Amino acid sequence: MSAPDLEPVTPHGDHARPRTRGDRWAAFKESPYLPAVVLLFIIAAAAGLFAGSYTYAMANPTPRNIPAAVVGTLDSPRDKAFLARLEVALDTSLVLREYATEAEARTALEEQKVFAVVRSANGGVAMDVASASGASVAQLLTESTLKVGEAAHVPVKVTDVKPLQRGDPRGLALFYISLAAVVIGFIGAIQLSVHATGLNPLERIGFTVAYALLGGFAIAAVVDWLLSSVDLPFVQSWMILAFTMFTTGMVFTMFNTLMGRWAMIPTWGLMVLLGNPSSGGAVSWPLLPSVLGFIGRWLPPGASVNAQHAAVYYQGHQRIFPYLVLAGWSLVSCTVFWVWRHRHPGGRDHMPQHAATAS
Question: C-alpha distances in angstroms, 158 versus 199, 243, 276?
Fold first, then answer.
């Protein structure tokens, strides 16, 4: 009896052939390594852009055009020479706006239309500045005016008619509380998307409102009641902070609806890389690059800072524009989220198609 012929056993299936480059790329795309590698480059780019944006806007503030009120006309040769020297010292041009009376010029200062009031006084020049409108601008105007007056032998008197509060001598507290509201606002939305994925659209908006109200209260209470850094008009400042947190939270939710897991990129870019340096909180807008000074007022961080400044220092001259900016961003974000809510990765209403047909 002869032994049966034994055929060699050969592997078959996918293990029979070596993996091609296309197979390896397909496997890599399905693995967790692809998003990890992408994040490596995104984080590195974000680090450089973060440092660059703040350095570009704040490291070397340079005056551009500074609006200033003039009481009457400064037509004498001495006055003209003084203003010309002042512009040279500031390395900028003063945008002079004439007012008939000192009261009208002071109103323009209170409404933050101008940063200084210049007038003739006692054979010299008097200048009123407002640190509350921008400590960096007021300091620059004060130092330059005194130096020019001494060099030109013109008597000069500078008065800060709207000084900052004692607990905030550099005028940064309002910037910091607005920054906290902006950042914690979208971080809160991120945490809801990670740890409360089952929230339906209305529930998600409701919880965003809730953490915005609680977070805004906490920020205002710590800065005002605990640290006594700034005497806030508490309810109004609280509502501004809550409005800011809700707005930035919904901006992230909007991008999360449109872009999924990459929503952090446009949110961070819009709010942190662009919005905060251009907000005018750390460096007043006349000292910012002109494009940033303009854009900043249309973004939530700048709107929040401007609303807080008016609430704290200019109670009688409130402006509606910052609130309209926050309302516009909130409305757009909520509308996009609601219209395309079926694309949002969260919610309990998503039923798999096979489950729906099986029932």
Answer: 58, 37, 31
In the numeric block, which tokens belong to residue 237? Answer: 């400042």
Residue type, 15: H
The 10s digit of each residue's pLDDT in 37-84 is 887 887 788 788 777 776 766 666 666 778 889 887 766 777 778 888
DSSP 160: E
How many CA within 13 A on the CB side of residue 170?
A: 7
Q: Are 213 and 180 in contact (CB under 8 A)?
A: no
Which SS3 state, helix, strand or coil, does residue 96 take? strand
Reported as type and span, the H/E element at residue 71 is strand 65-71
Are the CB atoms for 133 and 115 separated by under 8 Å? yes
Residue 61 — φ and ψ, nearest 5°? Answer: -65, 130
Longest CA pairwise span in the chain (Å) = 133
CB 285 within 8 A of CB 62: no
Rounded distance, CA 257 to CA 220, Å?
A: 31
Instruction: Report pLDDT digits (tens) over 135-149.
Output: 888 888 899 889 988
Q: Which residue in 116, 107, 165 sits closest to 137, CA to CA?
A: 116
Half-sphere exposure of 80 (CA within 13 A, CB side): 3
